[in-house]
User: Which sequence fits this backbone?
């Protein structure tokens, strides 16, 4: 069975769906791998590198897709490439179905069976396939690095003959995968770190990393059965906003990571709060592409307002694309392997993981979260 790997064409996307190591494993599963020329150049993987491990490098997307029954991508293919995928083929990637409902409908119309790894169920058997977590962890790391670079001062306590430099104060808003990695990274850099989250259970995780947990005196636990954050009630939002406003005045770098699955990002920092922050401080908004946790953040831009820099970089995992590609390729391989037997598909359509990630099949959008 032929597997096509396309060069990513979405804005700010530098990752690739397969690495030389994962190509070797795909070949070991009895597959033929055809990769579009230049697909790995942004992560320093030349066409020759792929050819050396047994992949066939094709001149363009048309040649890679010809006869392919499986297509591996990072992001949803653009319309021109989607139209060239054969009806009945299987597409796997981080397709962002909630934000791309029209693309999902078009994918179904073409006759493609599509799986999106964002929708994997949160069960132990799916942990090795969890690309959302692997990419979010890298985003949390990179957010701190970007914030530290823009801050322009040292992060750790430094005692020198010329005097003492106080450590930076970092505040992480949202203690999911990205937030916890941001906490760990800021601590490694020597900052004094505090964090907040609407889920009461997050306090233990935050404190285990050496950070202080900041929350209103009376806290409503806003956690779903699956462990995700859910929207707060009005009273809890008021309490959270009050303690956020008080905390921001003391902070040097703020990392915003709060997201609610299937909803716009919650607004945590408004312009009035930014006005109270110290001149030269930095906000890094990882939720900017879902509307942003800060009202001043803009996708793809660095905004300066009231002496504060607000970083709204797009696709932050792609800013550390080499490691992000390596992690993603392994996640993809772990998801794909159980779907195959003797080099062809043997999909158990009743499997919980298959049903969770399945978006389109038989000409229809079938995932219940996309109904209507």
Assistant:
């Amino acid at each position: 069975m032929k597997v096509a790997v396309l060069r990513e064409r979405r804005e700010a996307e530098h990752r690739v769906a397969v690495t030389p190591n994962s190509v070797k494993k795909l070949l070991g599963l009895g597959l033929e791998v055809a990769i579009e020329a230049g697909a790995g150049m942004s992560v320093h993987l030349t066409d020759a590198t792929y050819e050396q491990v047994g992949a066939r490098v094709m001149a363009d997307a048309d040649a890679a897709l010809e006869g392919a029954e499986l297509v591996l991508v990072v992001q949803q293919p653009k319309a021109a490439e989607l139209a060239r995928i054969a009806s009945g083929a299987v597409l796997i990637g981080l397709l962002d179905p909630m934000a791309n409902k029209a693309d999902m409908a078009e994918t179904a119309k073409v006759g493609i069976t599509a799986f999106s790894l964002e929708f994997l169920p949160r069960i132990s058997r799916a942990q090795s396939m969890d690309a959302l977590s692997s990419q979010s962890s890298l985003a949390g790391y990179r957010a701190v690095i970007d914030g530290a670079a823009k801050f322009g001062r040292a992060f750790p306590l430094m005692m020198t003959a010329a005097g003492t430099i106080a450590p930076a104060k970092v505040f992480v808003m949202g203690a999911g995968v990205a937030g916890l990695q941001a906490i760990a990274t800021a601590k490694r850099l020597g900052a004094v770190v505090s964090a907040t989250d609407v889920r009461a259970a997050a306090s233990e995780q935050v404190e285990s990393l050496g950070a202080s947990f900041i929350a209103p005196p009376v806290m409503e636990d806003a956690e779903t059965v699956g462990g995700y954050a859910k929207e707060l009630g009005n009273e809890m939002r008021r309490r959270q906003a009050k303690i956020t406003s008080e905390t921001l005045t003391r902070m040097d770098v703020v990392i915003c990571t709060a997201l609610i699955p299937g909803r716009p990002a919650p607004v945590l920092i408004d312009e009035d709060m930014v006005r109270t922050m110290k001149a030269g401080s930095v906000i890094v908004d990882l939720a900017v592409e879902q509307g942003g946790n800060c009202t001043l953040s803009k996708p793809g831009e660095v905004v300066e307002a009231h002496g504060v820099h607000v970083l709204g970089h797009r696709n932050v995992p792609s800013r550390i694309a080499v490691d992000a590609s390596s992690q993603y390729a392994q996640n993809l391989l772990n998801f794909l392997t159980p779907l195959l037997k003797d080099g062809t598909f043997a999909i158990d359509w009743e499997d919980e993981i298959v049903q969770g990630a399945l978006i389109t099949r038989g000409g229809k959008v079938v995932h219940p979260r996309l109904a209507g």
